[in-house]
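Quick start: read one record
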Amino acid sequence: MNDVETLVARARSTQQIFAQAEQPLIDMAVAAAAWAILEPGRNRALAEQAVAETGLGNVADKVAKNHRKTLGLLRDLHGAKSAGVIHEDLALGLTEIARPVGVVAAITPSTNPAATPVNNVINALKGRNAIVLAPSPKGAGTCARLLDYIHAELAKIGLPVDLVQMLPAPASKQQTAELMRVADLVVATGSRANVRAAYASGTPALGVGAGNVAAIVKPAADMALAAARIAASKTFDNATSCSSENSLVIVGEAWRPLIAALTNEGGVLLAEKVASRLQSAMFPDGHLAPEAVGRDALSLIRLAGFKPDSFAGARFLMVEQQPSQIGPEHPFSGEKLSPVLTLYRASDFTHAIALVRALYEHQGKGHSVGIHGGGPEDWLRLGEELPVCRVIVDQVHSAATGGAFDNGLPFSLSMGCGTWGGNGFSDNLNYRHFLNITQIVRPIPPRMPEVEDVLGAYWSAYGR
């Protein structure tokens, strides 16, 4: 056997034993993996190493993300059944039994080299699975350190470390492809290339779509509050999240007060010449330059050849584009993974929807849309007219899409984008995606309708 086959064989052997575990031990395994990163000293060490290795984001926000995402996931899993009978419907005669999927291959990104792996590990263990991580090369050292912490915690409760493994660094594309081929389930978060490879592996796969979030701001919004939420979302971890706003579509009279409020939050609206130079620096060949990803605003100013002193206090940069400036030839209309916010003016709400639709036809279809200052009718229009799986209402978008303590979405770092985003699921990745469900089907009293009961309305309208 080659190295990957050996790794998976160990995982499979260990998983077959863990598959017999009962709920209390499963939940202890979940707690062990969570404490591996929630312990404050280890959390900070992982955050510091992640920034040092990848150059992406900042330590304070990674510490917050590691803590909040893991704590939220623990809340979601607390008391959830994932072994034996997990649901029973006596009226329908159905009983659901949770079964493991086996060995999970998890492809994880450099933007979250600790938070995403531990999220996958916890969900996999909740389902009595083994997991093998394939981290981005940039974040492999952070992932290895995380695994050391997890192994130490698993040892405390007598569970074998082979339940959680990773490809030895530096893993090649061929090794990652082989891992995906021999695993039972692939979970892929990160680049479009990784997601496409996962779907092409021949193994059942859960991949996520690209981000390019737009948010609509209406004149009725509380501009100070909306700006604070947008700024918090756009600057968190230097906008490395796929859920960070990339564009604002500002309706009518909302423009002037919103720009003023965003300026108060540290936003700087760039002059056209400055924006042009920034675009050339960030997209030198039409594609986002690696040195522009996950850097703070002043680093981007330097990248564009300007002196940071002229932009003192800048938290994020704003560039205005015309409604016609959407598409591959206008790179500011796409995902930027940096604190750069593109602004569009819309004449009314219908125009705003059209602009967002055009943005998503270019990039980001399926992910989510934000709205500030709208009402229930507006929310429903967005949900019914736009190709999105989430409509985020009056919230910090980058936090809300992946679950928050003040909304009802499951905590996750992987958001399904439905068929719009080329995905096979449209909800937030959660522990149920790591389960097989067996149904026991018992006979019940017949429920056969009369033909008239189900076709009566059709016959009345169109005849027999």
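The chain has a mean pLDDT of 96.
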